[in-house]
Each structure stands twice: as structure tokens, then as C-alpha cells.
Amino acid sequence: MKEKPFSKYQILANAVMIIWTLAIILPFILLFMSSITDENTLVANGYSFFPKKFSLASYSYIIKSGGQILKAYGVSIGVTVVGTLLNVLLSALMAYPLSVKNLPGRNVMMFFVFFTMLFNGGIVPSYIMWTGTFHIKDTIFAQLLPNFLLSAWNVMMIRTYFTTSIPDGLYEAAEIDGASQFTIFWKIVLPLGKPILVTMGTFAGLAYWNDWTNGLYYIVKNTGLYNVQNLLNQMVQNIQFLTQSSNSNVTAAASTIPATGIQMAIAFVAILPIMLIFPSFQKYYAKGIALGAVKG
Amino acid sequence: MASLKKSHASSGSSHSKAAKFKRYLPLYLMFLPGAIYLLINNYIPMAGIIVAFKKYNARLGIWKSPFCGLANFEFLFASSDAWTITRNTLLYNQAFIVLNTVVGIIFAIFICDTFNKKLKKIYQSAILFPYLMSAVILGYIVYAFLSQSTGIVNNSILSALGKDAVNWYAEPKYWPFILIFVNTWKGVGYGCLIYISTINGIDPSLYEAASLDGATKWQQIKNITLPFLKPTVITLTLMSVGRIFYSDFGLFYQVPRDSGLLYSATNVIDTYVYRGLMKSGNVGMSAAAGFYQSIIGFIIVLTANGIVRKVSKENAMF
């Protein structure tokens, strides 16, 4: 039905896509290669796909140094797991009432959620509130609470799925059977909504794993609460500070920054979980993105 | 449980309102935790936006700090920063919208037309993958290429061509291209996947009929694929235009490594607000810039949506 596999068009299309695919894969390979390059080789010859001398020193440093690096992974994993579970539960709880057609006040409730997507107060009042009223600065809540616990977008997506995929009469039928709304939610809505909850959960999890802004704003002194991204960011900041200052203590301070190879190793291990889950979660990400274009 | 049935049966009678409320109470309770979160995380800061009109004093807090009229705005707009950050934010976003749409559509068509199923899968995975990276990682990857002494561009490419090394993190003139490329590298997959799912929804018999009639590939794309993609393009563009006053803080902060020498080319409203609040401690100006962003951003969302409602109602957000 279509043109031959080796038509000019097919060759052009594949050539472009192969080049683009390489442009995406190669930087990650470079990142990995520099994490297993001998530090002196890296400093002398620069980043390279084919380093002259290999070394696993960076990875053994991460494991041996224990302390902050492993702790940061612990924070990343813990916050991601707890945050994602809370996010999915809160979103589902919020989306279910919004999907019940004859619920009085439903439009007002919808507007309450939707409006947060149109307008926001910005970081200055948020920052003042979280630090001044709730005192989350330098506590683990700083990594968990601001911005990522619930998003109106997720709630809308889940609500749309509930309205279209859960049969209308189901609630009434269960009600007549004497089931409470909470039982209905737990026994019917959550299992039926599993596909959308997993899809939205993968995005919530990614947002927590990748977040570095909460740490940037709210973790100031207690660096033990840094996640991996904050740690990586901190290393960049220290280097920028050193290269931009003419202070004579520079050499002393420079020795406290993990060498380039170690930074690359930490960065690689920060990507690793995403690489590992990518094959099995890819379809959820793709589905979630495709859903985004369909309005709720 | 009996009361549930009873209230169900009695709906419509005189005390139905109370009964109805009782019946639906559990649903309101379910809505409550999320609502409290939105109230704290989103609505209180909306009210707190008033800080832009105050001489903020950390000891007094937002509400008790004294009003100072438009002083914060006068300072902000008297500086050249206001113009720079507005220009940068708008120009970058325009470039991002155009490129992500055009490149996204081209890639989507190429991927959908690829014969080999395996290659198709590989392409689809590849374009999605960078989208999942954090800005910090993005910054590290770019650094591996652009670092002055160790980066692969200076070390392997420019030296092989016999050219002098460039101090990338000190030369603003290169950064519009770098940031636009990095943004496309990272973000094109998002729109592309949406276009792919739209193209997959087109009836294949349309293409069969067209090729029987002798239509060239280009004619098929122009007359079948592109018209089908139009509603999706409108929806996605509307969403991006609605956010045209906002930028990806990570892209503009992490990728240039917060290098002060690059601010003329990399400073956008979001990075400006951050630096005012956290670095220079200029809360008033930072709040004024944040207010400016929120209000103009809100007007733009409403306008963009209003225009789309007039042109093609079914593509409007609300």
C-alpha cells in the first residue's frame, strides 16, 4: 500500500531519525564514559568517548565515602516513594467526587481545582508562607510538601478517566447494596482507575525524583536533607563560586569538591533509576503525554 | 445504611436538602484533603501576591508589613532588567513554540512512516528519554560538551578544525542558540508523541486512496496528515502561548550554570525572581516581577483561550 522500503523518502526519514537518536544517546554515553575515566586523564585530555585510561575510582569513592552521597540517595528514594503514594491517593480522592454527576456544588469544586492552573501567586509569597508560617525550612517536609503533593492537572486527568470509564449506574447499584461511599471508592473506583492512577503516578514520581528547586529554596543549612539533585547542584555552585572569586583560599576549598569523575558518577547514578524503569514505564509516560492533548 | 436508602427515596421532599447533604457528605470529605492542600499551596500565595505593594519586613510578615504603593514597580521598571527579562522570556518562548511544533511534526511524520517496526520503537523511546531528565543532569551533560578546558567541543571538535577554544560560559552571544537547541533536544519528544498518536488515528484507507490516485508523499502529507494535525497543533500552541510569560527555570538556571557573564542572554523572569529573593535579598523587586508575571500571564491565558473559542470552539481549554 505504501512506497517501497528503500524509496528516497524512507531513506531521508530514517537518516534524520537515526542522526537524532544518536544525538540523544551519545551524550548519555559520554556522561557514563567520563564517570569511568581516570581523573588525571580526564583533566589532561578532557571528556572523551574513548578515554585513554579507565578507572572505577569514582564509584568506589561513592560507596566508601558513605555519608552525604548515600544519604542523598536515601532522601531521593524516600521522598519519591512517599510523595508519589500521597500524590496518587490525594488526587484519586479528589477526582472521584468530581466525577459523580449529580453531586451538588460539583461545578464550584471543579472551578476551585481548575483555577489553580490559570493563576498562581508566584514563588515570593509561597516562599514567605512556607518558611514564615509553616517553618518547613531545613526539614524533610521541604522536600515533600511544596508544589508536588498534588497537581490540578493530575486531578483533571483522573477525573476525566473516572467519568468516561466507570459505568454510571455503578455507584447507585453499590449504594443500594448498602456500600458506603468509602467502600465504593476503595473497592470499585481505585481498582477500576488503576491504569490512569499508574500513569499519573509515574509523572508524580518523576517530578519528585527530578526536583531540585525545593531543596534550592528550603534546604539551606541542613545539607543532610539534600536529595541527589541538590547535591549535584551544590557541586556546580561551589565550582562557579571558586572560578568567579579571586579569593586565596580557593585551593583549600577546591580540594573539598569531589572531582569531575565523581560528579559524573553521581549524575549517572541519578539517571540510573530512570533508565531502569524506562523500558517498563515508557508506555505510561507516552500514554500520559498523549492524554495531555485531550482536554478534560 | 438504611438511612442511605431512605434519603435516596425521600429526595424531592421538603427536608431533601439536608438529606442530600448527608448522603453526599462522604464525597465532600474525600474532596477535602486535596482542597486543603490547594488552599495552602496555591490560594494563600495568590492572596500573598499583595506583597508586591508592600515594603516587606520578614519580622512583620506579609500582612503586617507597611504598604509602599507602587515603589517596588517603579524600581523594577526603572532598571534595564525589566526589559531584558521580558524580552528574553518572550523571544525564547516564541522560538521554543515554533521549533517544537515544526520539528515535532516532522519527526512524528517520519516516525509514523518508518517501515521497520523495531526502528520505529527505538525512535519513539529516544525522543521521549531526554524529556525525563532533570535540569541538573541536563546542565552536567551540556557542561561535558562546553567546558572550556575539558569539554568535547573545545577539545576534540574545534581543535581538530584548527580553531581556537571558546570560553562558552563567558560569551552570551552563543547562548540563544545553545538554549534553543537544548530545549528542542529535551522537549521535542513531548509534542512529537502527541502528534504520533493523532497520526495513528487517521484512517489508513485515506492514504491508500490517495496513492492509488497517484498522489505524491508530499501531497499526502499536505492534504491528509497536516489537516488532521491542525486541531492538535492549535490545542498545544494555545497551551504554550498561555505559558509564554513563564519559563523553564531549570533550563535557564542550570544549563548556563548560573554564570553571571551570561545574564544578558539567559536571564528570564523566573531566574530574576529567584535571584532577587534568594541571592540579592531584594524581596520587593522580586515580588514586583512575580506579580507582573502572574498578572500578565493570567491575561494572556484568558486572551489566548478567548481567541481560540472564537475561531474554533471545540479546541478551547474552557
What features would you describe in this structure?
The complex is a heterodimer of chains A (296) and B (318). Chain A has 296 residues and is mainly alpha-helical. Chain A is 73% helix and 0% strand. Chain A has 15 helices and no strands. Chain B has 318 residues and is mostly helical. Chain B has one domain: MetI-like (MetI-like fold). Chain B is 73% helix and 0% strand. Chain B is built from 15 helices and no strands. The two termini of chain B are 39 Å apart. At the A-B interface, helix 1, helix 2, helix 4, helix 5 and helix 6 of A face helix 1, helix 2, helix 5, helix 6 and helix 7 of B.
Share of residues in helices of chain B? over 70%
Number of domains of chain B: 1
How does the major sheet of chain B shape up? none
Number of helices of chain A: 15
Provide the residue-averaged pLDDT of chain A. 87
CATH domain topology of the largest domain in chain A: MetI-like fold
What's the CATH class of chain B, please?
A: Mainly Alpha
The tally of beta strands of chain B, per DSSP, is: 0
| Unreliable runs of chain B | 1-12
User: At CATH's second level, what is the architecture of the largest domain in chain A?
Assistant: Orthogonal Bundle
CATH evolutionary superfamily of chain B: MetI-like
CATH architecture of chain B: Orthogonal Bundle
Number of spatially distinct domains of chain A: 2
